[in-house]
Amino acid sequence: MPTILECRGLRKHYGDVHAVDGLDLVVQEGSCLGILGPNGAGKTTTIEMLEGITPPTEGNILFRGRPLDRAFKEKVGIQFQSTALPEFITVKETLRLFSSFYREARDFDEVVRLCSLDDILERDNRKLSGGQRQRMLLALAIVSKPDILFLDEPTTGLDPQARRNFWELIRGIRKENVTVLLTTHYMDEASELCDEIAIMDRGKILERDKPARLLAHHFSGALVRVPSACVDGDRAPGGGSHQGDSYEIQSENLDQTMRELLAEGINLEGLSIHKPDLEDLFIKLTGSSLRA
């Protein structure tokens, strides 16, 4: 796939704070790239620079091989973490208003269909639920027929059903070969939507690849956890280590691991066994949970 967006040596400094510190990124056309990181990792600052909203301290950003210009602004759609909607007007009126801002706006009925807005067109913006509001904001982001769509934590605060409904909307939009850059605090969301994920911390990309490849590279077998209080600090049964409130063992042989724990007199109450997932990978790379 051709490259649609790339940055080289991207940096953003606020005094002594290096929010983004020498970031290189290439985004392929038609793909969905998820950028994951704890709070303060530099995700939003990175996205805002790629969107052309915040100027970088150093580095270059290219859209289809050219610096960001007016043509880019007409081909980008953005759904911010928080957006104020016009008050005292309806969803339909808001869509008509935003459509008027573009020379080549998407067909009104098509926007309504893609974002499932039929049932709320006559509703005042002030009366929208969380899920309805996110559908509305997505519609405003795609009304310009963007080639690339930025979604900055679009489902934060939504209930599980509303989140899954939103995922379906994104899948529908991606069928049009729209490129998506997504930041999220939800590992299941990244797994469901993203072709690749980039894990970011302290202003740098730590690793990037398909989720399955990253997990296969870093883990094998199963993860066994017991409460840290059950394991003396001086002992390391099963070759594990303390991770927060848990003692964690990456086990290739569960029978052997259980025997070792029992031989050490470890209390197995509270023991859990599970297949490593993106949350485990995130903690391994950053030392903290995604929402830290």
Give a description of the structure:
The chain is built from ten helices and 14 strands. It has 292 residues and is an alpha/beta fold. The chain folds into two domains: 3-215, 3-Layer(aba) Sandwich (Rossmann fold), CATH 3.40.50; 220-275, no CATH class. The strands form three sheets. Strands 6-7-8-3-9-10 form a six-stranded mixed beta sheet, sandwiched between helices. A four-stranded antiparallel beta sheet has the order 2-1-4-5, with helices on one face. Strands 12-13-11-14 form a four-stranded antiparallel beta sheet, with no helix packed on it. Strand 1 (3-14) and strand 2 form a beta hairpin. The longest helix is centred in the middle third of the chain and has 15 residues, at 160-174.
Protein topology:
Blueprint: E1 3-14, E2 17-28, E3 32-36, H1 43-50, E4 58-63, E5 66-67, H2 70-73, E6 76-79, H3 91-99, H4 108-114, H5 130-142, E7 148-152, H6 160-174, E8 179-183, H7 187-193, E9 196-201, E10 204-209, H8 211-218, E11 222-227, E12 241-243, E13 246-251, H9 254-263, E14 272-274, H10 278-286
Parallel strand pairs: 3-8, 3-9, 6-7, 7-8
Antiparallel strand pairs: 1-2, 1-4, 4-5, 9-10, 11-13, 11-14, 12-13
Helix pairs in contact: 5-6
Number of helices: 10
At CATH level 2, the architecture of the largest domain is 3-Layer(aba) Sandwich
Structural class: alpha/beta
Number of domains: 2
**Mass-distribution shape:** globular
Largest sheet features? 6 strands, mixed
> Can you write the helix and strand succession as a string?
EEEHEEHEHHHEHEHEEHEEEHEH
Mean pLDDT: 90
Strand tally, please? 14
Please list the strands of the largest sheet in the order they lie side by side.
6-7-8-3-9-10
Helix content range of the residues, please?
Answer: 25-40%
